[in-house]
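can u do me a favor
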């Protein structure tokens, strides 16, 4: 079986890129996995082919000579060109690591979308409408990071760009013609601290008022440096829509105050407990050693002490400058946890040191830039003059703090330029329960920040493409965006590499695109990958993608075989065995039963996807063995330990273990009615205060609480689901407008898996139980709930599915509007008197407010 990752696997990957043959898997009528499939399709003929339009005609990959592996090198590229034609003008760009594009002096775009090792996604835009009938200028700032991270890949830096019409190349990074010129942007300090363990470098700048002239004025002085071209890169399409980059201003001035140098704080990064272990540079975590760093704002600001902090809560005024003098600060509140680039206009009266710090919440009334174990600081040293500042990297914040340690400046026009997926606003949900409406808004906000190019875990600390999180987030995509484009690109990243370095052969990375120099991997996450792959097949009908994965999936199962004991259970797995952020993670050896429940679920998925009954049979045998060993007559225990030749069950029991059992069909309300009755009535949010079953460790948000809601959904317990969803998640929505990594605020406060609540609002509250755009069918399920009115809209490739209903007594009146060619099925498990009619105002008005009016 090991050959599947070699020649056979390479042929499958090539077939995926170049073949339009539809695999038979695409037409399989898959049975339910125990939860309803919510399907949408990216149904384009030969959609998996790489379009020829991404080929560059003259552009080559270039970079300043000999510096393609320098860490944190910031380089500017510029080309001017004439526009005097009626032809359309196209701008194509790709590169490594990240770039920001300016067109005629104005911000235009940021990229690229992330791809796998040795593959680079190409951004393409029609820029005709933005050009002037004279000389135009494209400027590209490129950050070449050259460090490992969970966010971007450590690959040699380059840029490849071209401005062209159908008949001519107007400018390019080619070897002849009108070429892009380059300069080192030394204003961004190169030798600085990493932003976090998971991301690359923090931002420190030393600027004078003319720092941006080169990208704003075509006649500005530009001292070009020589560049060299490098090997041809493998190019792949972006696939996902471009953000709109809308700017949001603060809602309020939250606080004003003063500070002084307090003399405290850590003296070095080695002494700083807020920097996670391993965040200092090492052979497995690249970066600059502390003694080489030019500035370390993270240490400097920890030596300040707040003297006064007054809450003001005044409305923010865009044009009114906020004057900041030495030792003063102002905190701004954006009202919602947002993701994007931090910007402001600054007038500097005398040399000034300006720090921008930020966080998702206030801690004791202040911004704690160390809370998330990230460098939530942007540092500016500014000469007198006027500036338009904007961070290069996207960050996450609700609260923004400006501090001046030296000098004086006026700051106005503060904004956050959003970096989020753009196509979520045509979907809508509203009901008579305002709490549920808030959950929808927070779910949408959480989703759009975490799905701009891949499915991420969080847009702040990591921006990593984590498995398992993605399994829950991906279910939201077709409901809000009406397609599976992000998921297709996400899977493509795992498909195209020949192999994954640093982790065992056959294993999949726990997050990707990422580097794992320390050899870290989570075996469980590869099993969640299989679960998601089956769901993706049902959502998209993309049998070609799924078939291309066959060799890689079968090789993954080969990896697990040596860990099977005589009972067929996985024992003493290597790597980071992860069940949940709770006590569950303390009980993962030697035989972890939740992991084996997941393994059984993954085996069953493989059997169904590829029509391999041996894996279905193995799954059933495994479930039977788990029931015999793990169930103690009251609960499922979490683990058993090896004592000589014997496997001894422990008394370790967790709430999450029970949910794994039911989620992956090891147990059911029919096979274990007493346990299910106990879980339904005694567990969940009320147990936090009841104190019942103290020897069963409680679940956390990720992922036990989410799995619990799924189980309530399967049984049609909508009223209980609605109550518990609000108890779990409404406090989060009310505080940040997003959902969190944990039930407490000690970690990320925008975590993608929480957006999964959107599926419950559509599926269980509204009743669009299954939206299948592949087979063009809608399954409606009306259940009992306290909601008296609900309406919603879901986009599909063929148009919108809209539904509205209202209840009076036991009579439910509904209106369902479907695109042409769709069929519907109605299940009335709430035992209502159901009437269908057209509401007086006809189609439901789903207007949503945007800047400048309604759409």
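np, heres the sequence
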């Amino acid at each position: 079986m090991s050959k599947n990752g070699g020649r056979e696997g390479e042929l499958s990957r090539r077939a995926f890129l170049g073949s339009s043959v539809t695999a038979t898997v695409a037409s399989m009528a898959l049975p339910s996995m125990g939860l309803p499939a919510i399907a949408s399709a990216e149904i384009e003929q030969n959609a998996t082919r790489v379009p020829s339009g991404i080929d560059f005609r003259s552009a080559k990959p270039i970079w300043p000579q000999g510096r393609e592996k320098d860490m944190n090198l910031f380089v500017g590229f510029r080309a001017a060109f004439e526009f005097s034609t009626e032809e359309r003008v196209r701008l194509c760009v790709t590169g490594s690591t990240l770039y920001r594009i300016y067109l005629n002096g104005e911000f235009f775009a940021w990229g690229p979308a992330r791809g796998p090792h040795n593959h680079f996604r190409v951004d393409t835009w029609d820029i005709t409408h933005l050009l002037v009938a004279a000389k135009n200028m494209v400027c590209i700032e490129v950050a070449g990071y050259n460090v490992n991270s969970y966010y971007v890949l450590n690959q040699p830096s380059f840029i490849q760009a071209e401005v062209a019409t159908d008949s001519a190349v107007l400018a390019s990074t080619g070897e002849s013609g009108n070429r892009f010129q380059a300069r080192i942007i030394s204003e961004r300090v190169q030798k600085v601290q990493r932003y976090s363990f998971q991301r690359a470098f923090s931002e420190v700048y030393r600027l004078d008022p003319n720092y941006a002239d080169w990208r704003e004025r075509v006649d500005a002085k530009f001292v070009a440096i020589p560049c060299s071209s490098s090997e041809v890169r493998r190019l792949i399409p972006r696939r996902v829509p471009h953000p709109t980059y809308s700017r949001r201003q603060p809602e309020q001035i939250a606080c004003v105050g003063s500070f002084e140098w307090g003399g405290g704080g850590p003296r070095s990064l080695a002494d700083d407990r807020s920097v996670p272990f391993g965040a200092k540079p090492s052979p497995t975590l690249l970066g600059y050693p502390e003694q080489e760093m030019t500035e370390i704002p993270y240490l400097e600001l920890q030596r300040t002490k707040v003297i006064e902090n007054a809450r003001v809560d005044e409305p923010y005024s865009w044009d009114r400058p906020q004057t900041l003098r030495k030792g003063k600060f102002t905190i701004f509140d954006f009202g919602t946890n947002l993701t994007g680039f931090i910007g402001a206009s600054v007038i500097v009266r005398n040399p000034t040191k300006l720090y921008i710090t930020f966080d998702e919440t206030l801690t004791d009334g202040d911004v704690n830039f160390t809370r998330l174990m990230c460098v939530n600081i942007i540092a500016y040293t500014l000469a007198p003059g006027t500036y338009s500042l904007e961070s290069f990297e996207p960050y996450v914040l609700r609260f923004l703090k400006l501090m001046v340690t030296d000098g004086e400046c006026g700051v106005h026009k503060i904004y956050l330029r959003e970096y989020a997926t753009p196509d979520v606003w045509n979907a809508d949900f509203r009901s008579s329960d305002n709490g549920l409406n808030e959950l929808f808004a927070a779910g949408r906000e959480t989703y759009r920040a975490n799905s701009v190019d891949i499915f991420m875990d969080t847009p702040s600390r990591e921006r990593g493409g984590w498995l398992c999180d993605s399994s829950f987030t991906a279910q939201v995509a077709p409901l809000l965006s009406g397609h599976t484009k992000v998921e297709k690109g996400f899977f493509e990243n795992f498909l195209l590499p020949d192999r994954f370095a640093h982790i065992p052969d056959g294993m999949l990375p726990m997050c990707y695109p990422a580097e794992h120099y320390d050899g870290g991997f989570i075996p469980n996450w590869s099993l969640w990958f299989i679960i998601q792959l089956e769901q993706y097949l049902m959502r998209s009908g993309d049998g070609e993608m799924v078939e291309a994965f066959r060799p890689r999936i079968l090789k993954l199962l080969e990896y697990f075989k040596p860990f099977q004991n005589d009972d067929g259970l996985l024992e003493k797995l290597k790597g980071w065995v992860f069940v949940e952020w709770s006590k569950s993670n303390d009980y993962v050896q030697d035989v972890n039963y939740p992991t084996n429940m997941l393994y059984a679920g993954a085996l069953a998925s493989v059997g169904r996807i590829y029509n391999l009954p041996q894996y279905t049979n193995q799954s059933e045998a495994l479930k039977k063995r788990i029931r015999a060993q793990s169930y103690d007559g009251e609960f499922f225990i979490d683990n058993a330990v090896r004592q000589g030749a014997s496997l001894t069950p422990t008394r370790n029991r967790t709430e999450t273990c029970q949910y794994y059992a039911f989620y992956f069909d090891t147990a059911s309300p029919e096979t274990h009615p007493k346990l299910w009755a106990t879980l339904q009535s005694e567990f969940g949010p009320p147990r936090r205060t009841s104190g019942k079953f103290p020897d069963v460790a409680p679940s956390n948000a990720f992922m036990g609480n989410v799995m619990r809601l799924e189980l309530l959904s399967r049984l049609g317990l909508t009223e209980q689901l609605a109550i518990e969803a609000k108890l779990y998640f409404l406090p989060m929505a009310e505080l940040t407008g997003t959902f969190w990594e944990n039930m407490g605020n000690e970690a990320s406060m925008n975590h993608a898996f929480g957006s999964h609540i959107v599926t419950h609002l559509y599926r269980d509250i509204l009743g669009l139980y299954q939206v299948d755009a592949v087979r063009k069918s809608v399954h409606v399920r009306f259940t009992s709930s306290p909601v008296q009115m609900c309406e919603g809209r879901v986009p599909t490739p063929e148009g919108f599915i809209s539904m509205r209903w209202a209840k009076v007594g036991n009579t439910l009146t509904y209106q369902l509007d479907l695109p042409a060619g769709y069929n519907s099925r109605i299940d009335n498990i709430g035992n209502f008197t159901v009437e269908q009619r057209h509401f007086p105002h006809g189609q439901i008005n789903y207007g949503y407010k945007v800047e400048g009016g309604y759409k």
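Confidence is low (pLDDT under 50) at residues 1-8, 14-52, 842-855. hope that helps!!
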